Amino acid sequence: MPYSMKHILNNDPLASRFVGGSIYQALLGSLDYHRWHSPIDGTVVAAYIVPGTYYAGRVDVDDNPPEHLDIDILSRSLPLTAAISTRAVILIECDNPNVGIVAFVGVGLAEISTTKIAVKVGDKLKKGDELGSFHFGGSTYLLMFEGGVSLSLPEDNRGHTDVNSQLLVLNPGPVGQ
Fold first, then answer.
1. Which residues does 12 contact at the CB level (< 8 Å), separation at least 6?
2. What is the pTM of this model?
3. In what helix (H) or strand (E) does residue 53 lie, and over which residues does it extend?
4. Chain centroid to CA 35: how far?
């Protein structure tokens, strides 16, 4: 299922800039770090909460259900949940013109949907500054980049990632040139 920029960003006028771009999505377990930090130096150009749906996760299904069992398909469809669940959207204009705008989207999964934004439009950010947080349990977040931004995963970032680890590598590219 493809991601819908229009729906994820709640019809934001900047949504079209992310069509054809890259998305990095990570899942957080209940014991993972649940504060968000800026991935770049830049300026906040939008920060808002999008109200969404709340779905209770199934507790009767383990990670290896029988093949015939129709498991909770909604909670396993990350592109769909990113577009319909309660989420925090923070758009940051990167100081590096080759990056353009980066979207951070914090998505509350299942009944765990409390998000808190700690920045406002116009705030100048340094990489690592706190953006906000989830208040409980498992969640997911997306980093979305404009089309034309070339990214790659570091070789050591193929599984669980520690706090303050490098998530992505920016490859030379012409977005802002």
1. 46, 89, 91
2. 0.81
3. none
4. 12
